[in-house]
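Show me a record, fold above all:
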Amino acid sequence: MDKRLDALIGKLAAERALSPEEYAELIETRTPEAASRLAELAVAERRRWYGDKVFTRGLIEISNFCRNDCYYCGIRRSNRAADRYRLTPEDILACCAEGYALGFRTFVLQGGEDGYYSDDVLCPLIGTMKERWPDCAVTLSLGERSRASYRRLFDAGADRYLLRHETADRSHYAALHPKELSWENRMDCLTALREIGYQVGCGFMVGSPGQTAAHLARDLTFIADFQPEMCGIGPFLPQKDTPFGQEPPGSGELTCFLLSVIRLIAPKVLLPATTALGTLDPLGREKGLLAGANVVMPNLSPVSVRRKYALYDNKICTGEESAQCRGCLDSRVKSVGYVLVNERGDAKGFPLGGSCHAKRD
């Protein structure tokens, strides 16, 4: 391996961080040999904290209505080709019941920013989920809300919140989003979630239009500073009915390289091998696990709506029943030497103190 690359990897492993310029250099000069070395270090770090366990998250895509008009997203409000739907609380509870029987101990409610799901709708739903399945974690991924809303949902029993920062560069954020959305508000939301006491997840797309190595370096610097409990990254995948519908997809190889880097800068992070990675590459999720990931997110949504939640084109697993998704992933995880477990899978070191709500502002 090139001596400079070797030195950068050694510094990253020892100090858990590089300068933005060094991150960019690492990305721009990476080689297969460097990727292999990083993956080896990342897997060792993941095993140190989590052994060979891979945690499952039962994903329930509750709505594809969205008030926002992000340029990359297939459920953006101006996409008239989208076949809109939303699940009722009863639908969602039925998905949870099926998932619990299959061994899921975390449920992720994900959707567009749909005004139907007010706090008055979500809080009783979350309370019922915690009452019926008290040994399960509830994760929300419902976009930007007010601090007061985040607090109400937390008090109702939500444990975790996923909110991808998308890019840590202000100008790049503006290139991906309409003017009414701001990078500053996205960061304020992440700060509020952390202060309230959630296990917080951020993340970004790899290969989004206009992205450079310098942008990725800023993302990595942000993650090193913020130290999220969860971090979701996956390749950018175009959706044909968006302004970016003709843009090329991101790189699976670079995504896996960055998974390894993130594992080293945030060793205890819960790091998914995403569906997007599996969509880009038939073995993408396996490659993600071998690069340091330790979470998979099979779909618990009703089969009748899965194709409608089209953030990007050609998403995998839209026709499989939940049991099939679970069984398929179990085999895939075993094929690369890991074990799919029926556990909540909380972030190591998070101050649970016997309760997911031990930390308050």
Notes: DSSP finds 14 helices and nine strands in the chain. The CA atoms of residues 135 and 354 lie 12 Å apart. Residues 3-341 form a domain with the TIM Barrel fold (CATH 3.20.20.70). The longest helix spans residues 32-50.
